[in-house]
């Protein structure tokens, strides 16, 4: 059965570490009747700017201290289980989740990455693309696996790099595509969630 009826949305947590623009975008999409997820929890590893979007939309949000990542993950798992959350979207979350955590949510954690994976895993993707005189960059939504930015790719979108681009202008271009791509990826895989 397709889980698209408004009363049967997939309970979702979004993990962030920064300004939360992808979170804001996903919240807006989640309010649409035919969008398959509802955002029920926002988790951050620090006092991130993006938490304001959760507060503004009256979504439960928690700051989890990752100085002891084992303890942090245990706390998160308890929260997710209590709230019957079955799907996780990483949106600029700057902590690496353990293999055992990922295993518990196998095929149910996705991430958006600002490059055309497998190119430029990790940080500073825009700088790397510019430095290497790439003609294209873009973004990729992929399943999260224990290896950084290496999970199965769901969907990706290209952006042309112009001669005038620098890391900042390229980031803005890619971000615009991210706002289109992340909801598309969620719709695409929602039937299997």
Strand residue content: 15-25%
The named CATH superfamily of the largest domain: Formyl transferase, N-terminal domain
- Head-to-tail CA distance between termini: 11 Å
Main pleated-sheet profile: 7 strands, mixed
Count of the domains: 2
Model description:
The protein has 6 helices and 7 strands; from the N terminus they run E-H-E-H-E-H-E-H-E-H-E-E-H. The protein folds into 2 domains: 1-105, Rossmann fold; 114-140 and 154-193, no CATH class. It is globular, with a radius of gyration of 16 Å. The protein starts with 9 loop residues before the first strand and ends with a helix. With 193 residues, it is of the alpha/beta class. The chain has a 7-stranded mixed sheet. It has helices spanning 21-30, 51-56, 69-82, 99-104, 125-131, 167-189; strands at residues 10-16, 37-44, 60-63, 87-90, 109-113, 136-143, 153-160.
């Amino acid at each position: 059965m397709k889980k698209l009826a408004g009363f049967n949305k997939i309970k979702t947590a979004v993990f962030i570490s920064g300004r939360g623009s992808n979170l804001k975008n996903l919240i807006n999409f989640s309010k649409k009747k035919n969008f398959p997820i509802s955002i029920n929890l926002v988790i951050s590893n620090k006092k991130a700017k993006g938490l304001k979007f959760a507060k503004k939309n009256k979504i439960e949000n928690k700051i989890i201290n990752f100085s002891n990542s084992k303890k942090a993950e245990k706390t998160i798992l308890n929260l997710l289980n209590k709230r019957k959350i079955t799907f996780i979207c990483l949106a600029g979350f700057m902590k690496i989740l353990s293999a055992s955590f990922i295993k518990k949510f196998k095929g149910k954690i996705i991430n958006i990455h600002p490059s055309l994976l497998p190119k430029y895993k990790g940080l500073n993707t825009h700088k790397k693309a510019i430095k290497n005189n790439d003609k294209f960059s873009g973004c990729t939504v992929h399943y999260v696996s224990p290896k950084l930015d290496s999970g199965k790719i769901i969907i990706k979108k290209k952006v042309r790099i112009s001669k005038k681009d620098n890391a900042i202008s390229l980031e803005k271009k890619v971000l615009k595509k991210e706002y289109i791509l992340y909801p598309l990826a969620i719709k695409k895989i929602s039937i299997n969630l």
